[in-house]
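Hello forum,

I keep getting stuck at the same step: I have a sequence, I want structure tokens, and every attempt I make locally crashes halfway through. Rather than fight my setup again tonight, could one of you with a working pipeline run this one for me? It's a single chain of 338 residues.
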Amino acid sequence: MSENNSPKPPRYPDHEKLLEWRDETGSVHPVRTPADWAKRWEHLRQGMMEIMGPLPEDRTPLDVKTHSTDDAGSHWRYRIDYQPEPGDRVPAYLLVPKQIVGKLPAMMCLHQTVQIGKDEPAGLGGSANLHYAKELADRGYVCLVPDYPTLGQYTYDFDNDRYISGSMKGIFNHLRGVDLLCADERVDSNRIGSIGHSLGGHNTMFLATFDTRIKAMVSCCGWTPHCHYYNGDITGWTGPRYCPKMKDYLGRCADVPFDYYEIVAGFAPRAFLTVSPIHDSNFDVEGCRKVMSAAKAIYAMHNLPENLVGRFPDAKHDFPPDDRKAAYDFLDRHLKRT
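Reply #2:
Ran it on my machine without issues. Output:
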């Protein structure tokens, strides 16, 4: 793994206090305008890179290859792979509606931690409640459904790559997936969103933090503040698939140099919907409620409070039908309008 030379941002002892930013001396300043908030948001990105490693700047040819084409009813399902960087290929599905009038909105559809990977969102196995790529393609979206490293058909060795974390590798792969969608002549590059459940839920959020081409996002069962994750035991985040440097903060979750308060608020004014079930044993709903409440101030500052939406269904770690429909309607409002 490569070393991380990203700048260290000022420390924020209380991430919930979003209406302040700190300069390089640690002095506190009020956040009164979007320009003030932009300083705090940049510190968030620096804090994430301190833990996840730097975002690579190189963009080599994607060299997209199509391996098969299947008729999936109202859409075509192409089995493809693409090259995010030399020596690596991401297996993926590209779902394309058969009815195309003008340029279409598009979605990154990111799967949960499941061995079949991309097959589940594409509707080829797993839980019917997680077939969101298939359902969105049926609604008229071009959908890219990539495998996450080590899942699905994606063989990968986290111990011998250039990344400090699997999370940053995921971010880079998904960002290159957005490049793929933007290059597709059937896609309106100004109307791209991302959706995911669990692993795919927080990867949607990580992608949108580093790629503002994502205009609308839905995260289901994907997150909670660090100190609400298993009562502050962040061990689950420290594996190679995620963020090994989080081991440095075991027993002191509040000191992690970024948190979901800044991540969610940083989406403003873009559209964000969370589906956070009240019985999710992975991601505590009360932490999600606290973040959504705090982030309202930043969305109000951008004069778009309606772009921040939380749904808290009476369910476990799942994406129930009513909430999927609400999520799709939300995406339609933000990505299908002209």
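The chain has seven helices and eleven strands. If your local run keeps crashing, start a new thread with the error log.
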